[in-house]
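Weekly sync, protein design subgroup
Attendees: M.S., D.O., the rotation student, P.L. (late)

Item 1: inverse folding check
M.S. brought a backbone from last month's batch and wanted to see whether the design step gives back something sensible before we order anything. D.O. pointed out we never logged the input encoding, so this time it goes straight into the notes. Structure tokens as presented (451 positions):
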């Protein structure tokens, strides 16, 4: 079997990564329970195993990308890197492990079923092709309209409170959830403009992108920036041109910068630089690495909060209340989101919402059962949409899947499992597809061979 140079590099990186994981975790062997060490070690090498075992070497495929980010998040979050040892109790690592195994099983079964269906169709002499052709003018005008709506929503959120949120971070919580949804229209419109005809960033599109990032930055929210940039990159990689190692490294650095600068400014303005310095010192973070402290804190937050949920929740599961809580917030009256429910359970100050991570969010409703089912279903959904995107080469289907995979990666930390904003954006993309599609008919072609 022919192996490309790029694949060979990733194989080498995979084996080096496994070796480094073994060496790195050997430092912790004497500081934690033996079973915890085995669980953490398996989590650390699982992404490399998945990559080596997968025929699809696309780094943004559901199996490779989600598994890698998930395992990195929970491995680093479970270890006390600054003083060695396990940061969380032993029983927590079992939940993390069961979660990702359930996801891999769901994605793998779906992948095998879909490809077996393809083989069966080919044996029967049937090819199912979805012929799609978009109106380029309608795509362009729709992109401009969405971009303008998003920019206006951002400007409203910036100036409606009387102060710019990045300089007064507490104001960002006063922004209406409806306005927040409208701000996402901007990056959707930009993607439509980006992939309209040229499929490359000209000077004008670059200016639109920089304006969007600047406004998102001033609102003191980092998540929309990450969603916009990653969705653009994932869509381009999956449908048009594969990302290189250099580009991937640059992307990771960009995400790291966004993930550190905004929370650093935000926290220093809210609590004072001296207070944040004392917090970092209490965590054992060297002074030279204070700029990385927000990222390290994010990675530790999810596993730590899940540990508190286990201790405080007991067997008093919420039976679906956690999942539907975010949908109730869009209804009239006083309703609490998932983060505020978690904040109440762990007895944290009410002015600081807490992110439970995807495992914590799932555990709240039915315990281990909802972790298994939730991660299994997520694997099925992401693998199915990925398959449909590759088979159809459809722009809007590709955008829908790219958005879903990016939201799923972010939900590893936030726990936002199909929040209202996700559903709204998917419905919007469905509407755009119906509006701009010129030909949307399934063509069944039966080819009879004379052999």
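Designed sequence read out in the meeting:
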């Amino acid at each position: 079997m022919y192996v490309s140079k790029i694949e060979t590099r990733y194989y080498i990186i995979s084996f080096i990564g496994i070796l480094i994981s073994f060496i790195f975790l050997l430092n912790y062997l004497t500081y934690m329970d033996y079973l915890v060490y085995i669980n953490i070690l398996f989590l650390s090498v699982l992404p490399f195993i998945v990559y080596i075992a997968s025929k699809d070497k696309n780094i943004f495929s559901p199996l490779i990308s989600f598994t890698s980010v998930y395992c990195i998040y929970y491995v680093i979050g479970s270890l006390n890197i600054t003083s060695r040892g396990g940061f969380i109790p032993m029983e927590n690592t079992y939940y993390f492990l069961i979660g990702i195994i359930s996801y891999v099983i769901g994605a793998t079964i779906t992948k095998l079923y879909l490809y077996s269906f393809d083989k069966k169709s080919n044996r029967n002499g049937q090819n199912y092709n979805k012929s799609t052709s978009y109106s380029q003018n309608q795509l362009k005008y729709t992109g401009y309209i969405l971009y303008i709506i998003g920019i206006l929503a951002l400007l409203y959120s910036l100036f409606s409170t009387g102060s710019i949120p990045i300089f007064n971070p507490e104001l960002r919580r006063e922004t209406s959830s409806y306005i927040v949804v409208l701000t996402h229209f901007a990056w959707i419109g930009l993607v439509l403009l980006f992939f309209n005809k040229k499929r490359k960033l000209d000077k004008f599109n670059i200016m639109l992108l920089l304006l969007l990032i600047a406004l998102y930055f001033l609102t003191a929210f980092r998540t929309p920036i990450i969603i916009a940039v990653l969705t653009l990159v994932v869509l381009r990689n999956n449908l048009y041109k594969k990302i290189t190692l250099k580009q991937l490294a640059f992307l990771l650095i960009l995400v790291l910068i966004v993930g550190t600068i905004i929370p650093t400014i935000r926290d220093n303005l809210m609590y004072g630089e001296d207070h944040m310095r004392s917090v970092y010192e209490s965590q054992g973070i060297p002074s030279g690495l204070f700029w990385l402290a927000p990222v390290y804190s994010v990675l530790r937050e999810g596993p730590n909060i899940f540990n508190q949920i286990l201790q405080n929740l007991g067997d008093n599961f919420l039976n679906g209340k956690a999942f539907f809580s975010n949908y109730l917030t869009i209804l009239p009256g006083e309703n609490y989101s998932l983060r505020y429910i978690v904040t109440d359970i762990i007895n944290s100050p009410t002015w600081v919402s807490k992110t439970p991570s995807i495992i914590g969010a799932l555990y709240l409703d039915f315990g281990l059962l909802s972790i298994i089912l939730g991660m299994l279903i997520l694997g099925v959904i992401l693998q199915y949409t990925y398959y449909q995107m590759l088979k159809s080469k459809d722009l809007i289907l590709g955008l829908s899947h790219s958005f879903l995979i990016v939201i799923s990666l972010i939900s590893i930390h936030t726990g936002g499992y199909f929040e209202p904003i996700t559903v709204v954006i998917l419905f919007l993309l469905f509407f755009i597809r119906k509006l701009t599609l010129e030909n949307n008919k399934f063509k069944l072609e039966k080819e009879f061979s004379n052999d």
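Discussion: Residues 130-445 form one domain. Residues 439-451 have pLDDT under 50 and may be disordered.
Action: P.L. to compare against the previous round before Friday.
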